[in-house]
Amino acid sequence: xxxxxxxxxxxxxxxxxxxxxxxxxxxxxxxxxxxxxxxxxxxxxxxxxxxxxxxxxxxxxxxxxxxxxxxxxxxxxxxxxxxxxxxxxxxxxxxxxxxxxxxxxxxxxxxxxxxxxxxxxxxxxxxxxxxxxxxxxxxxxxxxxxxxxxxxxxxxxxxxxxxxxxxxxxxxxxxxxxxxxxxxxxxxxxxxxxxxxxxxxxxxxxxxxxxxxxxxxxxxxxxxxxxxxxxxxxxxxxxxxxxxxxxxxxxxxxxxxxxxxxxxxxxxxxxxxxxxxxxxxxxx
Length: 284
Hints:
The chain has helices at residues 2-16, 33-36, 95-110, 148-155; strands at 25-27, 43-53, 63-67, 72-77, 80-91, 133-135, 162-171, 177-180, 184-187, 190-192, 205-207, 211-219, 228-232, 237-239, 246-252, 255-263, 266-275, 282-283. With 284 residues, the protein is of the alpha+beta class. The relative contact order is 0.13.
């Protein structure tokens, strides 16, 4: 993941500032004193010094469910939006040349508010969101290193002008959970006379008859599901159609029921269902 982002930044800089041949190096090492003393040509250094989750982009719903036609449901967790923070510096003997190289890199990156997808490796091509590239901005939250002077103190090197880069990518380390969809649930109620009564009173407990909660899906290749409506005939009760035509009925005793499917207030089909049963899907 990190190496893929490094490579995108490398390719982006080469393209934007028109580096020809090997006249300028782009490296990702820690810019320590020992490293800088070995440089033999102009170099742009991109030092990754911080990784953290972008909490501003974390959604309120951490999980989502995908219902599949084979009767299973797939529960997935949303990917983590991670911020990768780089310190970009230019290393040239003369200060004027250093500033010129750093300015060229700055202008090139500012032209790209997002990482260009055409530079993505195979592992980055399935990003669910565009990858923002923030240039020369400091993060709003407090972090372990918030000043360039602190970074140079850790690296034990002479301070250089630097530019903060923040790349935000989506990371999905989670495996989906597969469950069989529940089509029928049985409910029973217990009437307990002991509630709110003293212990000397005779206690009776009575178990109610069985009630069922059932769910199925309305399917159609001819009609748009948003134009159809569903009514439980025995109760004259409208039934709400959810995403992908799914519906549920609750509080049903054992027996036969009928569902009217309507289009433009005209009944186009009456479907008989048996409660309980294994399948409540309806094809129109």
